[in-house]
Amino acid sequence: MSGIVRDATGRPCEGVVVNVVRRPGSRYRIPESTQTRRDGVFVLQGLDPADVIAVQARIDGLGTRTAEVLFPGGEDAVVEIGF
Predict the structure, then answer these.
(1) Average pLDDT over all residues of the chain
(2) Residue 63's domain spans which residues?
(3) CATH assignment at residue 8
(4) What is the per-residue pLDDT across 13-35, written as a single tens digit (0 to 9) for each?
(5) Could you report how far apart the first and last alpha carbons of the chain are, in Å?
(6) Which residues, 6 or more positions from 25, have their beta carbon under 8 angstroms from its beta carbon?
(7) DSSP string computed for the chain
(8) What is the reported pTM?
(9) Cα 19 from chain centroid?
(10) Of 2, 34, 69, 81, which one has the fewest beta carbons inside 10 Å?
(11) Cα–Cα distances in Å, from 38 out to 35, 43, 44, 59?
């Protein structure tokens, strides 16, 4: 799964910690968290397909945003998180 984190003006956010939040009853294993690159892009690997997952991004001073995504089997999911 890949995605991008943007600020309120639409600019990419660098260095944002992004992770997956375990939901009750979910069968996926949680990969290590990652950080966004200079272009705001992040990649999370090791997710089990065909599950709804919650992806969380946190920026000090701006708080935490969570996006729920259906991670389709056999395909890559892309998520955008805005602050």
Answers:
(1) 79
(2) 2-82
(3) 2.60.40.1120
(4) 999 988 887 666 666 566 668 89
(5) 20
(6) none
(7) -EEEEE-TTS-B-SS-EEEEEPPTT--PPPPPPEE--TTSEEE---PPSSEEEEEEEEETTTEEEEEEEEE-TTS--EEEEE-
(8) 0.75
(9) 6
(10) 2
(11) 10, 13, 16, 14
**pLDDT at position 31:** 62
Task: Find out whether 81 and 12 touch, Cβ atoms under 8 Å.
Answer: no
- What is the DSSP pairing of strand 2-6 with strand 41-43? antiparallel
18 within 8 A of 5, measured Cβ to Cβ = yes
Locate 65 and state its tokens: 């945003």
Total domains in the chain come to 1
